[in-house]
Amino acid sequence: MKINLLTSCAKMFPGILNYGVIGRALSEDKWSISVIDMYISSENSHIDFPLYAGGSGMLLSFMYFDDIFSYVDLSFSDVIIYISPRGKKYNQSIARRLSGCNEITFLCGRFEGIDQRIIEYYNIIEVSIGDYILSCGELAAMVIVDSLIRLVPDVLGNKVSLIDESFSNDVELECNQYTRPNSCNDAKVPFCLSSGNHQYINNWKKANSKYITKFRKNN
After folding, report:
1. Cα separation of 166 and 109, whole Å?
2. CA distance 120 to 39
3. Which tens digits make up the pLDDT trace of 135-192?
4. Are the CB atoms for 13 and 37 separated by under 8 Å?
5. Contact (Cβ atoms closer than 8 angstroms) between residue 22 and residue 10
6. Domains of the chain, with CATH numbers?
7. Which residues, 6+ apart, have CB-to-CB distance to 101 below 8 Å?
8. pTM for this structure?
């Protein structure tokens, strides 16, 4: 998978994407990243302008985005994503669908927003990672990219991890997890987990997962 990032802060990348299993996969060419600096890829001296009819902040201009398409070929992108609080709420189901793409382009904003004509003309998809405001789209893009790359084949050494973790079924959270010792400061591991009865253990995990999901996702 190839990831393109349109950003005004190119030095932020690869950042955290260069660490852990995602960073190792990057060094092993299981995915690639292309960082496109907004300020050097436009012939226009300004890439943002004040809003029509008034309003605070500046908007990324349509004219700039026209420049970027002549500067770098993004026509191979399966999808262009703009990180926006107005966007569809990102979840694991969307991650799985996007993980099948060969090339994805992210537009990372640091403005009030972007000209609506950019979204409509280039069929850009707006995506939100939650109901809160960040100072830049780069942080949100890193979150989404991390969630996508871990779904690329052979990135995770243990494929079972993708099956057992939270949201693997789009509904339930992962059950409680424990490790040795069995008892510490009078806090004990649930008996069934050391019982050796696999059916009993699986039933406990499913029930615990449902319980956690019911109370944590509804509060």
Report:
1. 30
2. 23
3. 889 999 999 999 999 999 999 876 555 555 555 555 688 888 888 898 899 899 998 8
4. no
5. no
6. 2-149 (3.40.1280.10), 171-216 (1.10.1270.20)
7. 1, 78, 79
8. 0.80
